[in-house]
Amino acid sequence: MFTGSLVAIVTPFRHGRIDEPAFRELIEFQIANGTHGIVPCGTTGESATLSPQEHERMVALTVEAVNHRVPVLAGTGSNSTEEALAFTKHAKVAGADGALLITPYYNKPTQEGLFRHYATIAEAVDLPMVLYNIPSRTGVNLLPATVARLAKLPNIVGIKEGSGSLQQVSEILYQCGGDFTVLSGDDPLTLPMMALGAKGVITVTANIAPRDMAAMVNAALDGKMDAARQLHFKLAPLFSALFYETNPIPVKTALAMMNKIDGEVRLPLTPMAPDTRERLRKVLTAYGLIASPS
What we know:
This protein is an alpha/beta fold. It has helices at residues 20-32, 52-66, 81-94, 111-124, 135-138, 144-151, 166-176, 190-196, 210-221, 225-241, 249-257, 274-287, and strands spanning 4-8, 13-14, 17-18, 37-39, 73-75, 98-102, 129-133, 156-161, 181-184, 200-203. The strands form two sheets. An eight-stranded parallel β-sheet has the order 4-1-10-9-8-7-6-5. The protein has a two-stranded antiparallel sheet with strand order 2-3. Helix 1 (20-32) packs across helix 2 (52-66), helix 2 (52-66) packs parallel to helix 3 and helix 10 packs antiparallel against helix 12 (274-287). It is globular.
């Protein structure tokens, strides 16, 4: 169900409020350009600064706008098991196809704590669930042995793996078997991970280059590795540029340059600095995403 290029979609704001018309247009842009799934309320969607009401609205809005054309994998994670459970229950009621659950951040739970966190939610909500491991953000690493324990639970179908370690990816794939879906959580490592057996990516870059991201993943899934490699190298400047500053500052700035959203971020995130903004503009221009200054 969750394979291919799934976009970790931004949450557009205007004057401090969610810009729903702009978000609907982003959904149409993604689907028209071959994106295989929509992932709202992740890190790129600034879930950490959405109110619970806004979070639930974004999930419901995504389900409504997508209208069954591609899967919706709703971000429902939290550092509170109770809150993550509530968000996951809402995602099911709203009609999402699955839930993406980040490891509890700041708390730094043990591996047993991580297992019980996910098991509690999986046992309470009949919805396909994808784990999300990104130690650089959360301060805790979901180890392969724990992933293998969780993979035995019926509702836990995959993981977005963002540790940055191909060795860890390899161990997860080996221990969990072919029925468990591994997705890249790091755009530059998508192709190497797919060479090991990953089934795709939950991507930041697809926000601005959905067609090329989908084409790269499709080529890799079809075993056309030379074509996939060419697209990887084409996309590589975007992979770097979208992390000149903390995600999602650069990608929202890029979308604003492409006249798709306002580009507004919420504190403690701030607008992109002039020097990195100019570097980003040059990359987008060279890629052909925006016109050269006249």
